[in-house]
Design a protein that fits this description.
The chain has 475 residues and is mainly beta. It has helices at residues 376-380, 430-470, and strands at residues 16-19, 26-27, 41-43, 47-52, 58-64, 69-70, 78-81, 85-90, 97-102, 106-111, 126-129, 135-140, 147-152, 157-161, 166-171, 178-183, 190-194, 198-203, 208-214, 218-225, 231-238, 243-249, 258-263, 269-274, 279-284, 290-295, 302-308, 317-319, 331-339, 344-351, 367-368, 389-390, 415-416, 419-420. 39% of the residues are buried. WD repeats lie at residues 78-120, 128-170, 171-212.
């Protein structure tokens, strides 16, 4: 019997990446030089948001997608934070609402006006204080409106109900800084990676850890749920300091299903998963390339497809939601690549080559839309519901009718799990902590000087009194 190679039949085996021409890029943007391991970029069907380098606090740009080309140096910014902005995320159901978190320990909700910013925005519609240290991650719940998760350097994850503007739950199972958060399809499970080298699957409403993996051979950095397949994919570093990925069964984290080494570079690997096409994209921080794979239900689970190559290194990548893609060009994924050296944001489209210009049903199945499946009260009471799906053939231009209404709040205590989060609110930035420390040191020195002067004065008075008593007149 003669040997024959095994060919895989896949409609995505010829997917290729296409970078936008210079006039369709966003140029002249002072991208932040912060070394925090985040994307510093968020995009939806209307706006592109990028964290920028700025003095005296944190700021980010919000640019309408059609406003490509060179951006003016004095372009209006969102600049209300007192510390560097570490993460930004668009609300998946209301396209002009964006959440940001910062080194000033706050999470803020901003409402971008129709048509973009005309002047600097300093007032957020909602300011959320509950963390005692800087906040590194924010994530919106995938099926519930106005539920936001934030992870801080105080090792806590807070769940905010934006209808009331307060934290309603606190997940306190981590022993070190949380590196990444990812939800499953209906948002009933939360996967986290942590600096303590552990991968956890948590039930977010109770904070109970359902599964935990202590990754000794595979130091996890990033995690992503693979849609409804009940599997997780992590990126990390092997014991030989090579970059690798691992596939896990979410119900048994005792051992990964597969581990695969990628290369020997040192940059963090960011994973992106497209549940509609079952494609996984891997992009390294500081790399110029993006690898993509197809995920299967049977061994070997992971099939390498191709690689998009570029000489310019990427600092981070924003991802366009499905309803913002160009279906007429058979575009199945779109990245917005941050090129710090050039101050450039470059769109990169992943395209399935097809001759026909008609709508391709097989590569655009029903996908999660812009309508929430649950209200915050329903989700908090224990209800789980799959996302409401939409067709990209007819409904992808449909805009959401939901409007964000910020709650009116009075100053009061915020008690979560028996802890008052607003009691003794700490200084807003680490720089302020240092300034406060030096002020206290100066105050202590001043008081010491005053005491020593008073001590000298008392001794002088005692000496004068003694001299008076010993004088001849008194005798």
């Amino acid at each position: 019997m003669s040997w024959r190679p095994q060919y895989r039949s896949s409609k995505f085996r010829n997917v290729y990446g296409k970078a936008a021409s210079r006039e369709h890029c966003f140029d002249g943007i002072p991208i932040t030089k912060n070394v925090h391991d985040n994307h510093f970029c968020a995009v939806n069907a209307r706006f592109l948001a990028i964290v920028t380098e700025s003095a005296g606090g944190g700021s980010f740009l919000v640019i309408p997608l059609e406003q490509t080309g060179r951006i003016e140096p004095n372009y209006p910014k969102v600049c209300g934070h007192q510390g560097n902005v570490l993460d930004i995320k668009w609300n998946p159901f209301i396209e002009n609402i964006i959440a940001s978190c910062s080194e000033d320990t706050s999470v803020r909700i901003w409402e971008i006006p129709e048509g973009g910013l005309k002047r600097n925005m300093t007032e957020a519609v909602l300011e959320l204080y509950g963390h005692s240290r800087r906040v590194g991650l924010v994530e919106w719940h995938p099926t519930t409106n106005n539920i936001l998760f934030s992870a801080g350097y105080d090792y806590k994850v807070l769940i905010w109900n934006l209808d009331i503007g307060e934290p309603v739950k606190m997940i306190d199972c981590h022993t070190d800084v949380i590196l990444c958060m990812s939800f499953n399809t209906d948002g009933s499970l939360l996967a986290t990676t942590c600096k303590d080298k552990k991968l956890r699957v948590v039930e977010p409403r109770s904070g109970r850890v359902l599964q935990e993996a202590s990754c000794k051979n595979h130091r996890v950095n990033r995690v992503v749920f693979l849609g409804s397949t009940k599997r997780l994919l992590t990126t990390g570093v092997s014991r030989w300091n090579t970059r690798q990925i691992a596939l896990w069964d979410q119900e048994d984290l005792s051992m990964p299903l597969i581990e695969e080494e990628i290369d020997g570079l040192s940059g963090l690997l960011f994973p992106f998963y497209d549940a509609d096409t079952h494609m996984l994209y891997l992009a390294g921080k500081g790399d110029g390339n993006i690898r993509y794979y197809e995920i299967g239900s049977e061994k070997p689970y992971l099939s390498y497809l191709m690689e998009f190559r570029s000489p310019a290194p990427q600092k981070g990548l924003g991802v366009m939601p499905k309803h913002g893609l160009d279906v007429s060009a058979c575009e199945v994924f779109r990245f917005y690549k941050l090129i710090t050296l050039k101050g450039l944001i470059e769109p990169i489209s992943m395209i399935v080559p097809r001759r026909s210009e008609t709508y391709q049903e097989d590569i655009y199945p029903m996908t999660p839309g812009t309508e929430p499946a649950l209200t915050p009260d329903e989700w908090l009471s224990g209800v789980n519901r799959d996302p409401i799906l939409m067709s990209l053939k007819e409904g992808y231009k449909k805009t959401s009718k939901i409007v964000f209404k910020a709650p009116v709040r009075e100053k009061k205590s915020v008690v979560v799990n028996g802890i008052d989060l607003l009691e003794n609110v700490p200084p807003r930035t680490e720089n302020e902590l240092l300034r406060m420390f030096f002020r206290q040191q100066d105050e202590i020195r001043r008081l010491k000087d005053e005491l020593s002067q008073k001590d000298i004065r008392i001794r002088q008075l005692q000496l004068e009194l003694k001299n008076l008593r010993n004088s001849p007149k008194n005798n």
